[in-house]
Amino acid sequence: MFRKKFFLSIIIPVLFIALLWLIRFIQDQFQLSFYGFGIYPLEARGLPGIIVSPLFHGDAEHLLNNSLPLLVLGAAIFYFYSQVAFRVIGFTWLLTGILVWLAGREAWHIGASGLVYGMASFLFVSGLIRRYIRLMALSLLVAFLYGSMVWGMFPFVYAEVSWESHMLGALTGLILALWYRHEGPQRPEPDWYDDDVSEPDIDTGVLKNIEED
């Protein structure tokens, strides 16, 4: 059961990463520039980038840096949050793009980094607010593996990259963790907990006799 669920959880992340590398391969082979498919804030030419910008990366190193987090975080979402995984990833993709278009600086923004930050934020916050030991352990693992990513949300650290995508992706993940807090896996109730427990029956006749005596 575990192997089957694990295998299913990595299929979509693996296929997505393969698609990103195929696009990168085509770009390198034909010396193409895909910056025009990115997000350019507050301009009509940048609107298509809301949908397609995560598919394109500035260079192979940029894509390589995103590939492992996309695999690990994507697999974790599909494994532990399978009921809401598609919605979480879809809304992270879309809302991050919209926010970058509205609030980003005047430059072309490309890459899946916003998606990475959104998934990491969702996993971290979801585990904490659900108070479920397995998911809290996952939160701590995400913090351990990717906690250093927090520096990528500040312009004075990585001014040359789209820190806006990082910051707004993380914000989107936080919002979605709160929005879907009642969906997906929940902390199991203790075995002894039973909402249907009723007060013990009282034999009023016995009480009556006692009172009369």
Question: Can you summarize the main beta sheet?
Answer: none
CATH architectural arrangement: Up-down Bundle
Average pLDDT figure? 86
Q: Tell me the structural class.
A: mainly alpha
- How many strands in all? 0
| Beta content | under 5%
Multimeric state = single chain
What is the fold-level CATH name, i.e. the topology? Rhomboid-like fold
Shape: globular
Measured distance between first and last alpha carbons: 66 Å
Looking at this structure, what is the CATH superfamily? Rhomboid-like
Tally of discrete structural domains: 1
Estimate the helix proportion, in percent.
Answer: 55-70%
Textual characterization of the structure:
The protein is mainly α. The chain has a single domain (2-186), classed as Rhomboid-like fold, CATH 1.20.1540. 61% of the residues lie in helices and 0% in strands. It is built from eight helices and no strands. It has helices at residues 2-29, 49-52, 60-80, 85-103, 113-130, 133-146, 163-179, 204-212. The longest helix is centred in the N-terminal third of the chain and has 28 residues, at 2-29.
In short:
The protein is 61% helix and 0% strand. The protein is an all-alpha fold and 213 residues long.
Task: Furnish the topology, listing elements before pairings.
Elements: H1 2-29, H2 49-52, H3 60-80, H4 85-103, H5 113-130, H6 133-146, H7 163-179, H8 204-212
Helix pairs in contact: 1-3, 3-5, 3-6, 4-5, 4-7, 5-6, 5-7
Tags for this entry?
Rhomboid-like fold; mainly alpha; globular; 213 residues; 8 helices
